[in-house]
């Protein structure tokens, strides 16, 4: 049903492609799909769930290409590779490396440089490695919505977005240095144009630095 919906969009509207967000399995609890698993014939629940997500992404890719061979398909996964595997059953490495899953990858690397568990440069490097091995463009998702606010779960880097006024530009610069760099996207539009007045100036200062770097490159 989802693949048919994707084909309908691409076939009937003048779009360049189709892009999905990071909605895969919402829980690791066994009760969620116990009946489907029992009837599936798979030996383990994780094998069953990984295969379901693989088939979903592959079916979407095929549907897009069948409707319009030049249209592109991509997935915006969580930035944490571990969360994709351990919590959502999304085999992002397979999707990057094996053909027939996506045209480019858009990880949500919404972490500061000083994040205690997912420092930006380390996370970026891991995604770059997968993208290079698969030969897919790496389009980096960056977080405007964190500018000027405390990053609660960042550990030692929780105040970084409040005290550093050039995070986005430095993150873009690091992404541009990746050999698989295919672009960057900012989340979200509302965080730029309808942000809280208390952080509005800082947001626009960051965007100015970001834009200057794009023009320079």
- Overall structural class, as computed from helix and strand content, comes to mainly alpha
List the total number of helices: 10
What is the approximate shape?
globular
Question: Compute the gyration radius: what is it?
Answer: 19 Å
SSE arrangement, N to C: HEHHEHHEHEHHEHH
Which stretches are poorly predicted, pLDDT < 50 over at least 5 residues? none
Q: Major beta sheet, specifics?
A: 3 strands, parallel
Portion of residues in helices?
A: 40-55%
**Strand portion, in percent?**
5-15%
| Spatial strand sequence of the major β-sheet | 1-2-3
Overall mean pLDDT stands at: 96
Distance between the termini: 43 Å
For the secondary structure, the number of strands is 5
């Amino acid at each position: 049903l989802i693949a048919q919906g994707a084909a309908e969009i691409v076939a009937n509207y003048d779009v360049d492609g189709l892009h999905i967000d990071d909605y895969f399995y919402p829980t690791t609890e066994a009760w969620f799909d116990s009946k489907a698993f029992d009837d599936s014939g798979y030996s383990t629940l994780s094998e069953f769930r990984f295969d379901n997500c693989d088939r979903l992404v592959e079916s979407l890719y095929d549907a897009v290409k069948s409707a319009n061979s030049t249209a592109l398909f991509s997935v915006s996964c969580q930035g944490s590779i571990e969360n994709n595997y351990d919590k959502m059953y999304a085999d992002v490495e397979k999707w990057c490396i094996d053909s027939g899953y996506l045209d480019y990858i858009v990880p949500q690397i919404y972490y500061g440089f000083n994040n205690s568990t997912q420092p930006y440069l380390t996370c970026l490097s891991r995604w770059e490695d997968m993208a290079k091995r698969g030969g897919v463009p790496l389009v980096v998702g960056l977080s405007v919505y964190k500018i000027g606010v405390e990053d609660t779960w960042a550990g030692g880097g929780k105040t970084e977005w409040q005290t550093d006024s050039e995070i986005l530009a430095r993150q873009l610069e690091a992404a541009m240095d990746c050999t698989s760099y295919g672009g960057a996207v900012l989340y979200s539009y509302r965080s730029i144009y309808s942000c809280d007045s208390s952080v509005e100036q800082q947001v626009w200062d960051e965007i100015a630095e970001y834009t200057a770097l794009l023009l320079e490159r």
